Amino acid sequence: MTTPTSSSAITPTRRLLIARPRGFCAGVERAVGVVDRLLEIHGTPLYVRKEIVHNQAVVEGFRKRGVIFIEELQEAPDGALVVFSAHGVSPAVRDEAVARGLRVVDATCPLVTRVHRSVIKHAESNRAIVLIGHAGHDEVAGTMGEAPQLVHLVESAEDVAALPLDDQAEVAYVTQTTLGVDETAGVIGALQERFPNLLRPGKDDICYATTNRQAAVKTLVAAGATHVLVVGSRNSSNSVRLCEVARSSGVGSTLIDGPDEVSVSMLTEHQNLGLTAGASAPEDLVQAVTDLLRDAGWHPEDVAGVEETVKFKMPRELETLE
User: Fold this and answer.
1) Is 261 a catalytic residue?
2) pLDDT of amino acid 109
3) DSSP 314
4) Thinking of the domain 14-24+208-304, which architecture would CATH place it in?
């Protein structure tokens, strides 16, 4: 006698829940597009100060095409063509470029430029400025350079208590554009509590893409993901924040540069996996990870979020080179 197969014995379909939006933001598309275009119209040698964006695959791809990445302008010869990265630079760096006769194309993200302008505006009033950000990040270094004598960097609510400022002073704050939304809210709350005359930005400094990608991770978790893979490099602030958002939502997360860092055997316990990418991670890496996991038995499904339509114009300097 044949025993009927129980429906409970049928293995349910494994799901790979893929976030949307994910990957490149408008600022990264612009910066990468600048280097692409310069390679077309100018060729090499082409110098880029710092990494054009914080993604190893993007940087290595350009390096193979002849782009020379430098840490400081002194590494480029006088008169060279140099691109400033998406993270922005200080006035001191700009002055050095002029003094050296360097031809510069500025690929700074317009949203980072907006933060710089806020710092300049407050500095003109000789107002103390608190920058919420991560020490050592390229964006933070450039922003602080606008008014180093007035800008105070804080990374946590605990840092706010140690600020050498009068509680009644008129203090303004700005933020690094790639911070965790929830994390930053706690620091802002501490600033508001200590400084009753606190001035906040006219618009939130955390960029739309950072906010949208963090919300998309929460949507993945709500849809059932029990572990989230984040495609992005370890020096990418916004990618690291996506991992933190997943963990704060109660699930595990892993930051990967690409498919070579995916351990399928470590993921088999998860019926529903989440997949997203930081704002500096290219889509081809997401697709490569998707293909790998599809072959391993997970069925890809898009999980839709906010539709992004933001586009930025290319730098004017490109026109003079074409």
Assistant:
1) no
2) 98
3) P
4) 3-Layer(aba) Sandwich (3.40)
Rounded Cα–Cα distance for residues 140 and 127 (Å)? 18
Q: Please give the span between the terminal C-alpha atoms of the chain, in angstroms, as a whole number.
A: 81
- Count the Cβ atoms, other than its own, within 10 Å of residue 152: 17
User: Identity (one letter) of the amino acid at 208?
Assistant: Y
Residues 112-128 pLDDT 10s: 999 999 999 999 999 99
The listed CATH number (3.40.1110.10, 3.40.1010.20, 3.30.420.40, 3.60.110.10) that belongs to domain 111-194: 3.40.1010.20
Residue 261 CA: distances (Å) to CA of 100, 126, 127, 289: 42, 49, 47, 9
Catalytic member of 60, 71, 75, 139: 139
Alpha-carbon distance of 246 to 219, in angstroms, equals 10
Whether 37 has a pLDDT exceeding 90, the answer reads yes
| CA–centroid distance for 237 within its chain | 5
Over range 245-258, report the average pLDDT: 98
Maximum CA extent, the chain: 91
pLDDT of residue 204: 86
pLDDT at 4 over 80: no
Tokens encoding 39: 């390679």
pTM above 0.85, yes or no: yes
The answer on pLDDT for 134 being more than 80 is: yes
Measured CA distances, 292 to 15, 20, 220 (Å)? 13, 19, 19
Residue with tokens 């190893």: 56
Helix (H) or strand (E) holding 49: strand 46-49
- Beta carbons within 10 angstroms of residue 14's beta carbon: 17
